[in-house]
Amino acid sequence: MNDIAASSFFEPQVIADPFDYYRTWLPKSPVVQLSDSMFLVLSYEHCAQATGDVETFSNNFQGTLSGAMAEDGDVAAILAQGWPQVDTLLTADPPTHTRFRKLVNLAFSMKRVAAIEEDMRGVVVDLVEQMAARPSCDFVTDFAIPLPVAMIASQIGMTGDDLGKVKRWSDAFVDRLGRMIAKERELECAREVVEFQHFVKARIDERRANPTEDLLSDLVHAAVDGERPLEDAEILSIMQQLMVAGNETTTSALAGGLLQLIDNPAQMAKAVAAADAGNERAIINLVEEVLRTESPTAGMWRMVRQDAELGGIKIPQGAMVQLRYAAANRDPAKYPDPDRFDIERTNARSHLAFGKGIHMCVGNMLSRKEMAVAYTELLTRLTDFAVADGHAPSWPPNMLLRGLTTLPITYRRRP
Ligand code: HEM
């Protein structure tokens, strides 16, 4: 497959199935130049290095990206009915990032995650039992979407009736981020963004008047480093990121991981044995190996603030770099036989699926816990998982995120 051109990376068929590209280009160069101003970092070592150099590789890429893909007038007119996008977490650098991150860290501490484990298990068991009542389902629609949506919605002050909206809004933000969409969809996404903002703004106002026990209320009443309270646009930005980052990625990990187990019966047998024995360590390692091989956030942008050199390649100031975490996680220098799915891999946890450094995923403990509880309950209650006859799993092209949109499966309840 040496005929894959370096510059073809963002072509839909390559981005939908990028593994040959990684296998071809990683041995040639850890950093690949896609155009005068765009680079791809493929190796584990150099992805890790770039995440540690925030002076050079900035997360403040939103402005550069929207400059390159200027909002068209119709889209801008719709967005003007909402609040401006401001940089808080993912798209902010220190010191702005540091202040917001401190606030959100508190809400996602291990203690908080442990406190919601019981509710989480309740949601998981309900979903598995609904699956068990039928011989088949679409695992994405019936399990992998509702679980993270329910968990994140409750964290951000949304309940029952709002769950469908959360998924719709989250999809719109993801489509805008990946930007491989038609104009009609762009307009629809802009309308979803505005609807989301007005919905959350109403809940912000309610909490200003009457504090409640949720993250949204915490944010409304928090003072950043003892300074001023957060502005509406800042709270909306944080909420939007939690909603988007917490949904699609976890859905993709859950579904991709189940497919890996189905495709690898020997690994499935080991996973079932671990679940039956209540071997939490083994289940946690399964989760890490799923994250390594699936890498739902396949890549993330950085904007280059000063002339740099990475992996022997010169990168000019102003260039955009994509850290390709999915490629780094299959770097043979770090993971021998990297395409093999091995739930006993000893260094699986060192993966970069959550990034590294100051922007490392704030929701990593939450999603790890969701995956561990989900696989335990699925494997102890159901068996004989198979992909439904005639279905060929496929991945829609998206520049940053990678995940199944459907996974029809058959199974039966364990005797
Ligand atoms: C399997 C699931 C998930 C994956 C693979 C994932 C992946 C990532 C990655 C790679 C980053 C770092 C981006 C960078 O390098 O700039 C990140 C950041 C982030 N993630 Fe996640 N994530 C997941 C789940 C979640 C959940 C459940 C939440 C929240 C509820 C969340 C919220 C965030 C936020 C807010 C950031 C930005 C943090 C910052 O810039 O300080 N993620 N995530």
Helix content: 40-55%
**Major sheet summary line:** 5 strands, mixed
CATH secondary-structure class: Mainly Alpha
Number of domains: 1
Secondary-structure class: alpha+beta
Poorly predicted residue ranges? none
- What topology, given as strand order, has the largest sheet? 1-2-8-5-3
Report the order of strands and helices: HHEEHEHHHHHEHHHHHHHHEEEEHHEE
The portion of residues forming beta strands comes to: 5-15%
Small-molecule binders here are: protoporphyrin IX containing FE
Q: Tell me the total number of β-strands.
A: 10
CATH third-level topology: Cytochrome p450
Structure described in brief:
Helices cover 52% and strands 10% of the residues.
